[in-house]
Amino acid sequence: MINKWLLGLLISLWLIPSQSVQAIETENALKAGFLFNFARYSEWSRAQDTQTEFVLCSPDSHFIDVASAVLAKRMVNHLPIHSIIVNLTETDLSQCQVLFITSDTLSLWQSAELTPLNNIMVVGETEDFIEQGGHIRFFLSGGKIRFEVSPAKLTQANINMSSKVLRLGRVVDN
């Protein structure tokens, strides 16, 4: 009897981490979908005539793995989406159109000391992310992923987001 109880306890403990990993992957997949739609309904001032792909970047390798799977065969402005892991250097970031800073990579972002990033949509998921230089921040409300956006900061980065998308989020002025 004790062996069955112990076995049941071990199986339960083994399942708990896998469920939380699955929840994180699901959340990352949803955020990748949001990033895709942000990109679809935005315009960058930099000419995209010479581009052969639309580049989604993050220093978080786990997020990039999930985003690559979710966004496979998707296109933005007739360009295939390519998801890549980057270091937070101006050289690496120059290839990005969207940069996603996860809570795990926030300290890297804060210590990067980058000049303002033009033509790069910067999205994060931590409190005060927009005040720290980001354009869009994900947050949870009622168990759902929501976002807040600073149109002024997007404009400063030479990006215009459709009013249709802006109406779906919480607009903040900084």
Number of domains: 1
Structural class: alpha/beta
How is the largest sheet built, in terms of strand order? 3-4-2-5-6-7-8-10
* Number of separate strands: 10
**Roughly how many Å is the radius of gyration?**
18 Å
What percentage of amino acids are in beta strands? Answer: 15-25%
Question: Unreliable stretches, pLDDT < 50, 5 or more residues?
Answer: 5-19
Gross morphology: globular
Put simply, the count of helices is 6
For the record, the CATH class is Alpha Beta
CATH architecture name: 3-Layer(aba) Sandwich
Pfam families: DUF4154
Keywords: Signal
Organism: Shewanella saliphila
Signal peptide: 1-23
